[in-house]
Design a protein that fits this description.
This protein has 225 residues and is α/β, with parallel strands linked by helices. It has helices spanning 11-23, 34-40, 59-66, 83-91, 104-120, 152-163, 171-179, 187-201; strands at residues 3-7, 27-31, 47-51, 73-78, 96-99, 126-129, 132-135, 140-143, 146-149, 168-170, 211-214, 218-221. The strands form three sheets. The protein has a five-stranded parallel sheet with strand order 2-1-3-4-5, sandwiched between helices. Strands 6-7-8-9 form a four-stranded antiparallel sheet, with no helix packed on it.
Length: 225
């Protein structure tokens, strides 16, 4: 049974959604404010249905906080339906945004799609961290709500660093595995590729959170988990 965290403060909507989700064989846990949602959220949840305008802590801030450590599917439901609101929600890492009032059947369909997508994301072709998504098969990444296509070598370097998450990968190993023994790029070439990855994923490329350099040694991909 898939487990859903419903974060909503409108009692009538809570009752309707809980009833219908349980009919669809989902387990539903309810939080009526953002503070409680953050307190009870854990890795056992498969999906969060999250209102934007909730007491204590806003839905946007709840999403931002959860995306620091989890790639759980997040569906925003909100009366705030401007393009700016939707873009804000998606940039924070939400997977979908549904404007109130909505059709119940549409919500149930979107829930089913998002949960099914989570199953797909267990594939080794997909890697997710902190709201970013990397598809090693299509060479596409989603970062900060935008979609980019990487070159073959960029993706190979990305895959190598991720496969050794938390470990230092030497320049010699990178040159050997990505460029091959018969090619002789300079270490500056690798630096430029690392800078490129930082532009995609880092908020501040001068103070990288994920793609770190160790002077004279190599590089390391690191995430908090």
């Amino acid at each position: 049974m898939k487990k859903i965290l419903l974060v909503e403060d409108e009692e009538s909507l809570i009752n309707v959604l809980t009833l219908n989700l349980e009919i669809e064989n989902y387990e539903v846990v309810v939080a009526t404010n953002g503070k409680t949602a953050l307190e009870i959220f854990n890795d056992s949840f498969d999906l969060i249905i999250l209102d934007v305008m909730i007491p204590e802590i806003s839905g946007f801030d709840v999403c931002r906080e959860i995306r620091k450590s989890s790639n759980v599917a997040i569906l925003f439901i909100s009366a705030k339906g401007t393009s700016l609101d939707r873009i804000t929600g998606l940039k924070l890492g939400a997977d979908d945004y549904l404007v109130k009032p909505f059709n119940l059947e549409e919500l149930l369909l979107r829930v089913a799609i998002l949960i099914d997508r989570q199953k797909t994301n267990l594939s080794p072709d997909i890697f997710e961290f902190d709201g970013n998504e990397i598809n090693f098969k299509t060479y596409q990444i989603k970062s900060n709500g935008e979609l980019f296509t990487l070159s073959k070598r960029e993706m190979e370097l990305l895959k190598l660093l991720i496969s050794k998450k938390g470990e230092v990968v030497s320049r010699d190993e990178i040159l050997d595995k990505i460029w091959g023994k018969e090619q002789f790029p300079s270490t500056r070439t690798i630096d430029n590729y690392i800078l490129s990855l930082r532009k995609y994923f880092e908020k501040d490329s001068r103070n990288p959170q994920y793609f770190k350099s160790l002077r004279g040694i190599g590089y390391k991909f690191e995430i908090n988990s």
